[in-house]
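[DERIVE STRUCTURE TOKENS]
===
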Amino acid sequence: MSEPRAEKLAVVDEVRERLSTTEAVLLTEFRGLDVPSLAALRHALRQVGGDYKVYKNTLVRLAVRDLGLDLEDLLTGPTAMAFVGQRADGSSGDAVSVAKALKDFARTNSALVIKGGILDDRRLTIEEINVLAEIAPRDVLLAQFAGVLAAPLQQFAALLSALPQKLAYALQALIDERGGAPVPTGEEETVGESIEAGEEETVEEQTEAGEEETVGESTEAGEEETVEEQTEEREA
């Protein structure tokens, strides 16, 4: 009699340990599921970090009472418990993925009935488990959250890279509107001064050249007149 009792106590301790360390546990009734169907369900749950276990209701009830969990009314009929554990790659599973795996399996296997569960010591109804199954898994939510954080940085980087191009378009539009590239103020003054200086130099050069020519012609004419007068005086 001592050996069966020790085995039962070991099962109670195991259930208590699993309930106290798991993120969530979902209870199901599997009446009518054959062995291949149970194997397929266990495989689907393992892929998402779930562990499907069948215990005697009397032993589970003892563990539940020790932990003060509100589950005793669900421990009727053939009951199996889907614990949230670890995936095959060692990463942690989550309640959403386990709930989704159970719901997806129940769609094609009406013999599987979801009865309720516990999430972080809080009782879950069937309706709440169905809603939980519609939420995106944790890894998807984390990826979406990372994308939300990265999006403003990406948009800011794109804006910075687009600024030079947009500025160039704006400047070109301004140039076209004014009929060509405007000459900077400093250049306008330099060009104006150069033109004015050039004109002044030309006028001065022309004036000096004219004066030189006039003076030269006047001198030559005067010299010619003096020679003629001297010749006439001698002949006379």
